[in-house]
UniProtKB/TrEMBL annotation:
UniProt KW Nucleotide-binding keyword: no
Family from the record: Belongs to the kiwellin family.
UniProt source species: Manihot esculenta
Alphabetical list of Pfam families matching this protein: KWL1 (PF24300)
Protein name in the entry: Kiwellin
GO cellular component, as recorded: extracellular region
Alphabetic keyword roster: Secreted, Signal
Coiled coil: none
Signal peptide (from-to): 1-26
Locations listed in the record: Secreted
Protein's UniProt keywords contain Signal: yes
């Protein structure tokens, strides 16, 4: 009788165990794999299959530092970076994108060995000077959500050009090999290739000019 009771007890325990749902996947932290927003912990979001800071919220969990305020039109720096004896403001946000967003167009060499440093973030590739490509400030880059998309840039002379987003103009980090030794970008930068400047008929020696841009 005792053996029968023990058998029944073990049978019931075994059935309870196998009827339990399998354990769920652990919630991913920074750079962890993800398929949806629910796969990432806290205020992280899923970007290109990895959990990362949410550019809309202005979190800094993955990059360190204090959280920045959300981009609400009053975009302020959240700290500074000391570089070559100077202090540069750090931003996670950029002014709101409109149908005619004011920006500063700068000149960048996206080719291998150029001043841009590492390959472009969007495709891990270098781009020739003849390609119409741009990098956007961190807030506008939006964690890579604008990678591969086309933007329209309009210069003060009335000329316009379409260019592809291939990289981030990092507004939070800089002064290292990855960034070609350059300081953090301002939060309103459209960093264009030679071809972009030439299509707009601009003097590249100026290095920076006022433009407007929008999503194409």
């Amino acid at each position: 009788m005792a053996n029968t009771v023990s058998f029944i007890y073990l049978y019931l325990v075994f059935n309870v165990i196998i009827s339990l749902p399998p354990p769920s996947n652990a919630i991913s932290s920074c750079n962890g794999p993800c398929r949806s927003e629910n796969d990432c912990s806290g205020q992280l979001i899923c970007i290109n299959g990895k959990c990362n800071d949410d550019p809309e919220v202005g979190t800094h969990i993955c990059t360190g530092g204090s959280p920045a305020p959300p981009s609400n039109g009053d975009c302020k720096p959240y700290g500074t970076l000391r570089c070559k004896g100077k202090s540069y403001p750090k931003y996670s946000c950029s002014p709101p994108v409109t149908s005619s967003t004011k920006a500063s167009l700068t000149l960048n060499d996206f080719s291998e060995g150029g001043e841009g440093g590492a390959p472009s973030e969007c495709d891990e590739s270098y781009h020739a000077k003849s390609e119409r490509v741009v990098a956007l400030s961190t807030g506008w880059y939006a964690g890579g959500s604008r990678c591969g998309k086309m933007v329209r840039i309009i210069a003060g002379n009335g000329r316009s050009v379409l260019a592809k987003v291939v990289d981030e103009c990092d507004s939070r980090n800089g002064c290292d090999d990855e960034h070609g030794g350059l300081p953090p970008c301002k939060n309103n930068i459209v960093d264009g290739s030679d071809a972009v400047w030439e299509a707009l008929g601009l003097n590249k020696d100026l290095g920076i000019v006022d433009v407007t841009w929008s999503m194409a």
